[in-house]
Amino acid sequence: MGMSTWSICTTWLKSLIYSILNRPSKNKLVVEHPHELVPFLEIQVFAEADEPPVLAAPSDGPRLFATHIPYQLLSKTLHSSPCKVVYLTRNPKDTLVSLWHFVNKWNKENPHQSWSLDEATDRFCRGVSLYGPYYDHVIGYKELSLKRPENVMFVTFEEMLKDPHDYVKKLGDFLGCPFKEEDEVNEVVKNCSIEVLSSHDVNKSEESPAWFSLPYNSFFRKGKIGDYKNYLNDESIQRIDTLTKERFHSLGFMYGV
Length: 257
Known about the structure:
The protein is mainly alpha-helical. The chain has helices at 8-21, 28-31, 34-37, 41-45, 71-79, 92-106, 117-126, 134-147, 157-162, 164-174, 182-191, 194-199, 234-247, and strands at residues 2-3, 85-89, 152-156. The protein is built from 13 helices and three strands; from the N terminus they run βαααααβαααβααααα. The chain has a three-stranded parallel β-sheet, with helices on both faces. The radius of gyration is 18 Å and the shape is globular. The mean pLDDT is 86.
């Protein structure tokens, strides 16, 4: 599972895929945070060389991991592996605003390191971002999904949010775990809705995980399409849209504007 998104979108996809692959254990989402059930490779699994890797499932079952690492750094591994990859991206303007909120929460104890929105916009457009430039990140996995559709499923947050039922079915088929009954699909969609997930005590917790300095509730914000309109001015929107057309639309990927 790869992502160019931040916070709630990543958390939502983790919840959906965990529920699809572990249907008898779906109630775990009520008491365990999605980031504990589906660990990040770069943060939780291999961050400490002297500790054994965290496994997302028993050794005799499928293992489920997440990563923000760009394809450009994983190309050799992905091309030599039969693993399935679900890549989720989000409109660049909403991604920027989500990233801005997340970074400033991270730097809350160090206000001098916080970013203004103008500074965050400038960095984003120059490709200075966590885990590398947004556009390169998305393009890498988008092109891989076209070359290896049997192994890589590329989805957008906007499409999934508009029709979660259809995408949960598609995810089940892609992951080799198809649904037999529509009621099963409806149950996963309901249990993994952002509203339901946000209501669980574990996801409202002020406690911080051992592997990160922010509390569990920092991974849940709005998850709304077009929230950037409440933050970005016309000049910033135009700047990002122009860059999006240059980077995405020139390749035939009509997305983000």
